Design the sequence.
């Protein structure tokens, strides 16, 4: 008898066995903040030491709070889940509040990812901080 497993079910099982906690897996599978923002106030890009590429789009409201963030990512499950968690932490925050978000904050949201993927969290946070700093310095794309 052959048991059929859905693609997301198989992915969830593999990621769990690799050391990803359920929140991290959910972020990876849902990818709810992937894509671009038309007329973004800032677009920035960063390449990680592993070769993963993250492009961030920031949209601010009239009070200069983060209204929306989207990432485009060429990378692994760790990079994607970390970026999605970073968005949840930053949406609705002021630029300075978002700059205060650190790797530990993102890790707490994810609960766990494999140790060899911790650099993905750093990349997501550094990409967000770079976008904010470039916007604040007037280097808006």
Sequence:
């Amino acid at each position: 008898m052959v048991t059929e497993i859905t693609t997301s079910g198989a992915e969830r099982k593999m990621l769990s066995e690799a050391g990803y906690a359920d929140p991290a897996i959910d972020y990876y599978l849902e990818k709810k903040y992937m894509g671009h923002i038309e007329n973004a106030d800032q677009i920035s890009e960063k390449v990680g030491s592993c070769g993963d590429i993250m492009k961030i789009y920031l949209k601010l409201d009239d009070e200069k709070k983060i209204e929306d963030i989207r990432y485009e990512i060429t990378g692994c499950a760790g990079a994607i889940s970390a970026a999605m968690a970073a968005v949840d932490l930053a949406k609705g925050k002021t630029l300075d509040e978002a700059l205060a978000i650190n790797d530990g904050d993102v890790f707490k949201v994810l609960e766990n990812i494999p140790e060899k993927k911790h650099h993905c969290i750093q990349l997501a946070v550094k990409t967000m901080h770079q976008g904010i700093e470039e916007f604040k310095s007037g280097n808006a794309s």
